[in-house]
Specification:
The chain is 45% helix and 14% strand. It is globular. By secondary structure, the chain is of the alpha+beta class. Helix 2 crosses helix 4, helix 4 packs antiparallel against helix 6 and helix 4 crosses helix 7. The protein is built from eight helices and five strands, in the order H-E-H-E-H-E-E-E-H-H-H-H-H.
Length: 219
């Protein structure tokens, strides 16, 4: 069972990410990191991640993927969700004897996640051994999380809005370095960009100081 850890370090989080990615690659999957770990690899500094989010390019059920990971590497294990209404199990990685890291597995189609071609996956120094979601897609997926959390009826989810805004604002600042633009991201599905535009305009209204950054990216 997962122990009550102090906050994991960035090194420990990356260790968990590498172990998961290696296990998936050994089983023939194409996958990449997104969420707060990808943000940190791209250069955000406002917080340390506390778990690992992975997109696996497959049509398999995420529960089946978790089973394969556990069967392939004994440092991973499954625990039933603490919410009895949830049927899924939670995947954990053993960092050390008393420290564990949660691993979330998602697939394209869930939470507006697009399929990500292997040649679009990014490798960012000095952590170029960890494949991450392309910067532009990461930013727009973060925006999806922000809009979802704003209207969630659960207080603990709405409390994530300020964290989302700090992540998004820092990614917008980093966009000066990575210089994404709508015209360079034609691989993204039309439905994804349509949803993204609506969320960008909502963010502009809520945080007008971000308008210039979004315009520079082609919105």
């Amino acid at each position: 069972m997962p122990s009550s850890n102090n906050a994991l370090t960035g090194r420990e989080i990356r260790s968990a990410a590498r172990a998961a990615m290696t296990t998936l690659e050994d089983r023939g999957f194409t996958a990449c990191i997104f969420g707060s770990v990808a943000c940190a690899i791209y250069g955000t500094e406002n917080r340390e991640p506390n778990d690992v989010d992975i997109i696996v390019m497959t049509e398999l059920n995420p529960e089946n993927i978790k089973d394969l990971i556990v069967a392939s590497n004994d440092r991973f294990y499954l625990v039933h969700s603490t919410n009895p209404r949830n049927s899924y199990q939670v995947l954990w990685f053993t960092v050390s004897s008393h420290r564990t890291c949660k691993i979330d597995i998602l697939i394209p189609g869930l939470l507006s996640i697009p399929n990500i071609p292997a040649n679009k996956i990014s490798f960012i120094e000095p952590f170029q051994d960890i494949p991450v979601v392309p910067f532009f897609a990461l930013l727009l997926l973060k925006l999806r999380g922000w809009t979802d959390h704003r209207v969630d009826d659960r207080r603990h989810m709405r409390d994530k809005v300020k964290v989302d805004e700090r992540d998004i604002d820092e990614l917008l600042e980093l966009s000066k370095k990575y210089q994404p633009h709508v015209d360079k991201e034609e691989w993204l599905p039309t439905w994804f960009m349509h949803e993204a535009r609506e969320r960008v305009y909502e963010y502009m209204q809520k945080r007008p100081e971000s308008i210039e950054s979004w315009i520079k990216m082609g919105f």
